[in-house]
Amino acid sequence: MIYGVGIDLVKIERMKDVVDKWGRKFLERVFTKNEISYCYEKKNPYLSLSVRFAAKEALIKAIGSEVPVSLTDIEVINAANGRPDIKISGKLKEFFSERSIKQPALSLSHEKEYGIACVVLEK
Q: Which residues are catalytic, by number?
Protein backbone atom coordinates (compact mmCIF):
# COMPACT_ATOMS: atom_id res chain seq x y z
CA MET A 1 0.00 0.00 0.00
CA ILE A 2 1.34 3.42 -0.97
CA TYR A 3 1.75 5.75 2.03
CA GLY A 4 2.91 8.78 0.06
CA VAL A 5 4.65 10.06 -3.06
CA GLY A 6 6.80 13.17 -3.32
CA ILE A 7 8.64 14.84 -6.17
CA ASP A 8 10.88 17.90 -6.22
CA LEU A 9 12.76 19.85 -8.88
CA VAL A 10 15.81 22.04 -8.17
CA LYS A 11 17.52 24.46 -10.53
CA ILE A 12 21.23 23.59 -10.34
CA GLU A 13 22.35 27.22 -10.79
CA ARG A 14 20.19 28.22 -7.82
CA MET A 15 21.94 25.62 -5.66
CA LYS A 16 25.30 27.04 -6.74
CA ASP A 17 24.15 30.59 -5.88
CA VAL A 18 22.99 29.53 -2.41
CA VAL A 19 26.24 27.67 -1.69
CA ASP A 20 28.29 30.61 -2.98
CA LYS A 21 26.35 32.99 -0.72
CA TRP A 22 26.09 30.92 2.49
CA GLY A 23 28.93 28.40 2.12
CA ARG A 24 29.56 25.82 4.85
CA LYS A 25 26.80 27.24 7.05
CA PHE A 26 24.19 26.23 4.46
CA LEU A 27 25.86 22.96 3.54
CA GLU A 28 26.10 21.73 7.14
CA ARG A 29 22.52 22.74 7.91
CA VAL A 30 21.13 20.79 4.94
CA PHE A 31 23.56 17.94 4.18
CA THR A 32 25.41 15.34 6.21
CA LYS A 33 29.20 15.25 6.20
CA ASN A 34 29.09 12.13 4.00
CA GLU A 35 26.86 13.87 1.46
CA ILE A 36 29.10 16.94 1.33
CA SER A 37 32.21 14.79 0.86
CA TYR A 38 30.56 12.70 -1.86
CA CYS A 39 29.32 15.74 -3.79
CA TYR A 40 32.64 17.58 -3.66
CA GLU A 41 34.45 14.54 -5.08
CA LYS A 42 32.48 15.13 -8.29
CA LYS A 43 33.55 17.36 -11.18
CA ASN A 44 30.45 19.51 -10.63
CA PRO A 45 29.31 19.19 -7.00
CA TYR A 46 26.19 21.30 -7.61
CA LEU A 47 24.56 18.56 -9.71
CA SER A 48 24.86 16.09 -6.83
CA LEU A 49 23.92 18.66 -4.19
CA SER A 50 20.82 19.61 -6.19
CA VAL A 51 19.45 16.09 -6.57
CA ARG A 52 20.16 15.34 -2.91
CA PHE A 53 18.31 18.47 -1.85
CA ALA A 54 15.45 17.50 -4.17
CA ALA A 55 15.38 14.01 -2.59
CA LYS A 56 15.08 15.47 0.90
CA GLU A 57 12.24 17.76 -0.18
CA ALA A 58 10.50 14.92 -2.05
CA LEU A 59 10.63 12.73 1.07
CA ILE A 60 9.17 15.53 3.19
CA LYS A 61 6.36 15.93 0.65
CA ALA A 62 5.72 12.18 0.70
CA ILE A 63 5.18 12.16 4.49
CA GLY A 64 3.16 15.36 4.50
CA SER A 65 3.34 17.69 7.48
CA GLU A 66 2.85 14.98 10.09
CA VAL A 67 6.27 15.35 11.71
CA PRO A 68 8.91 18.11 11.81
CA VAL A 69 11.98 16.95 9.90
CA SER A 70 15.60 17.98 10.11
CA LEU A 71 17.13 17.81 6.63
CA THR A 72 20.22 16.12 8.06
CA ASP A 73 18.00 13.25 9.29
CA ILE A 74 17.62 12.40 5.61
CA GLU A 75 20.83 11.20 3.97
CA VAL A 76 21.10 10.22 0.32
CA ILE A 77 23.55 7.37 -0.05
CA ASN A 78 24.57 5.08 -2.88
CA ALA A 79 24.20 1.32 -2.70
CA ALA A 80 27.16 -0.84 -3.74
CA ASN A 81 25.68 -1.04 -7.25
CA GLY A 82 25.48 2.79 -7.44
CA ARG A 83 21.71 2.99 -6.98
CA PRO A 84 20.68 5.98 -4.85
CA ASP A 85 19.05 5.21 -1.54
CA ILE A 86 17.88 7.09 1.54
CA LYS A 87 19.13 6.58 5.08
CA ILE A 88 16.88 8.07 7.76
CA SER A 89 17.63 8.88 11.39
CA GLY A 90 16.33 10.81 14.38
CA LYS A 91 12.62 11.57 14.77
CA LEU A 92 12.04 10.58 11.17
CA LYS A 93 13.24 7.02 11.86
CA GLU A 94 10.82 6.81 14.81
CA PHE A 95 8.01 8.15 12.59
CA PHE A 96 8.68 5.48 9.95
CA SER A 97 8.73 2.75 12.59
CA GLU A 98 5.49 3.91 14.26
CA ARG A 99 3.66 3.93 10.93
CA SER A 100 5.27 0.76 9.54
CA ILE A 101 6.68 2.67 6.54
CA LYS A 102 9.18 0.60 4.58
CA GLN A 103 12.50 1.81 3.16
CA PRO A 104 11.79 4.72 0.77
CA ALA A 105 12.12 4.11 -2.96
CA LEU A 106 14.18 6.89 -4.57
CA SER A 107 14.88 7.95 -8.13
CA LEU A 108 17.23 10.84 -9.04
CA SER A 109 18.02 12.51 -12.33
CA HIS A 110 19.54 15.69 -13.67
CA GLU A 111 19.65 17.30 -17.09
CA LYS A 112 21.39 20.54 -18.00
CA GLU A 113 19.75 23.07 -15.66
CA TYR A 114 17.69 20.91 -13.30
CA GLY A 115 17.93 18.10 -10.77
CA ILE A 116 14.86 16.07 -9.88
CA ALA A 117 13.98 13.44 -7.29
CA CYS A 118 10.99 11.20 -6.74
CA VAL A 119 10.28 9.32 -3.49
CA VAL A 120 7.67 6.62 -2.95
CA LEU A 121 6.77 5.41 0.54
CA GLU A 122 5.04 2.08 1.13
CA LYS A 123 3.50 0.52 4.22
A: 61, 110
